[in-house]
TrEMBL record:
Family: Belongs to the ROK (NagC/XylR) family.
Annotated protein name in UniProt: ROK family transcriptional regulator
Superkingdom, taxonomy of origin: Bacteria
SUPFAM superfamilies: Actin-like ATPase domain, Winged helix' DNA-binding domain
Any Pfam family hit: ROK
Amino acid sequence: MNNLQFDIKIVEQLEGVERKKYIQQIRIVKALYVDGAQTTSKLCKRLRISAPNMMSILSELVDANIIEKKGQGKSIGGRKPDLFGLVDNGFCVLAVEMSIYKVSIALFNAENKQITDTEEYSVVLNNEKSTLDYIIDLIKSYIQRSGIDKAKVLAIGISMPGLVDSVNGINHTYLNFGDKPVTELMKEAIGCPVFVENDAKAMALAEFRLGSAKGKKDILVLYLDWGIGLGMILNGNLYRGTSGFAGEFSHIPMVENGKLCRCGKLGCIETMASGIRVLELAEEGVKEGKTSIQLDNSNSKFKYLELKNVIKSALDGDQYAIKILHETGINLGKAISILIQLFNPELIVLCGMLAQSGDLITTPIQQGVNTHAMKQISEKSNVVITEFGDNIGMLGAVAVVMENAFEKYLAS
């Protein structure tokens, strides 16, 4: 990145004034990356840097083509102040969204705008080294074809399912080889810092940093897809819990002696209100001739596409498909009412495949919440569908970088 190189070894080699100055540069770049263009006075107040020192550092960052003037801010009397922001293509972030059966890749610039087309690849996540090698080859090839200088890639952000320990870069469910964290293996092979986060938590960060939850302190993001993921922003911070696994909402037992869940317990929320359950009910309806839903069970790898067909059928007016979503929404509402009474959130954001059914899922969810949650607590907890649509996963990967890319420099 021109004259400002993001390398922890540089911090370790610097001393005294030069070290302090380098750290201040990193803090300014992070502030502009996370919150966008700002005035000098706002940066001084936020970062507690004197005005003369701030002007000197900003001037150096402008000369290094890392930041630039982005117009003028509001005036409270007198001349309008200049706004400083990051140069759009000063650096970029590689976003990688992984699901159980698919990997998607795209590049985003310093303004969090996508600058290359998203490419999707069929990949079945597992714990085979060959799978990781294949994903690494896909990423290296993608960067090369993009024409972007790899030196400009600030970091790679990965959003993926499973029990993810983001602090140590380990996914205990997928791509776990026991010797080195998956982030270290990828960094060694690709040559860029790599950060990983559970998909629902990454989506919570995307909503918090870039979406409808920006500026709010207490939000819940529910990833209603094949399973049910939960990301929690509590008091303005992503909540991970002691081991990093907080949010396993899907595997809380709700029914005594209920259906066997894939986690090994009986009657989990996932068995009552997930994409898995929706598809099971759809398959039962097809066998009994109750519905027009078209399903093809010849290849389990494409069950995700079958779930899409169920959602489409409901939106097209298939009464059995609508009934399935209504039942699912009622069960979700009951489960969400527990979250509302525990955390008293300001906002609950729904994303994922089931959220794409719109009112067909949100109306019964609200009905379930109204039935099971205390009115005094639930009436201020708004339930909305993400404004990002299918792109929420990719923006989640970007937000993972926003959250982590500068921390090791500042911690030093």
